[in-house]
Amino acid sequence: MLEVIGLVKKYGKANAVNDITFSLQGGEVVGLLGPNGAGKSTTMKCIVGLLRKTSGEIYIGGIDHMQVGAKKLFSYIPETPSVYDLLTVKEHMQFIAQAYKVDNWQEKSEVLFETYDLTDKKDKLGRDLSKGMRQKVSICCALLPDPQILFFDEPMIGLDPKAIRNTKRIFKELKEQGKTILVSTHLIDSVESIADRIMIMKDGNIVGNDTLENLKIQMKENDSSLEDLFLELTKDE
Ligand SMILES: Nc1ncnc2c1ncn2[C@@H]1O[C@H](COP(=O)(O)OP(=O)(O)OP(=O)(O)O)[C@@H](O)[C@H]1O
C-alpha cells in the first residue's frame, strides 16, 4: 500500500532524511517513533507531497505519490492542525465532502462530531476554536472521505483524555476495517496496543523496524519495555 524507496530529504546541505527504504502492507498499522528531530515529520510530509523530496521514490497504492490517483487514497493529519478561520466546523466537513464527493456527509459528520464532542461546536468558526478543537476538526475531516491509508503526525498532542481515548478506539476500528495507518508519536504506549510494527528513526535513519511480536521477544529476553528498547536504539553513542 505504501512503498518508500531511498528517500532523501535535505534542508540546504543537511540531511534530515538519509536514504530510507520501507513499506507498509495493506491493513498494517505502523507506529513511527523517534526522538525530536529524528526526521519523522519530514518523512511524512515528503510522503504526502507537502515537501519536495531531494531524491527517492514513493508509491501509494502502486501509484507515484504526486499523482492525483495516489492522493485520493490517503488522508493526512498534520502535527499542527490548520483550519479555515472563516468556515464553521460543519462547513469544514461540507468542504471536504464536496472535494472528495462524499455521500451522506451530514450523517457521517454527526457521528464524528458525537465521537469528538464537537456537536455543540459545529457552528463555531475555525478562528474561534481552541488548539485541541482544531485537532479534532482536522481528524474529523481526515476520516470523512473514508481513505484507505491514513498518515497521523502526532495525533494525540493537544487532545484531552477523552479525545485521546476516542482516537485510540478509532485506530482500533480503522484497523479492523483493514485501513493502513502510519502514525508518528512520542506516546509509546498509545501505539503499543494497536501497532503491528514499530519503526524507529534517529538522525534521519531507520534504526529499528520490526513487528511488535519480535520486539516483545527481544523485550522478554532483555526483560525490558518498549520504552527501554526505544531508548536503547536511539541512545547517543
Ligand atoms: N524547515 C526546515 N528547515 C531546516 N531544517 C529543518 C526544517 N524542518 C526540519 N528541519 C530539521 O530536519 C530534522 C528533522 O526534523 P523533523 O521535524 O522531521 O523531526 P521529527 O522527528 O518530526 O521531530 P519532532 O519529534 O521534534 O517533531 C531536524 O534536524 C530539524 O532541525
TrEMBL record:
The keyword Nucleotide-binding applies. One of its GO terms (molecular function) is ATP binding. The keyword Nucleotide-binding applies. Keywords: ATP-binding, Nucleotide-binding, Transport. InterPro entries: AAA+_ATPase (IPR003593), ABC_transporter-like_ATP-bd (IPR003439), ABC_transporter-like_CS (IPR017871), ABC_Transporter_VariousFunc (IPR051782), P-loop_NTPase (IPR027417). SMART domains: AAA. SUPFAM superfamilies: P-loop containing nucleoside triphosphate hydrolases. This is ABC transporter ATP-binding protein. It comes from Belliella calami.
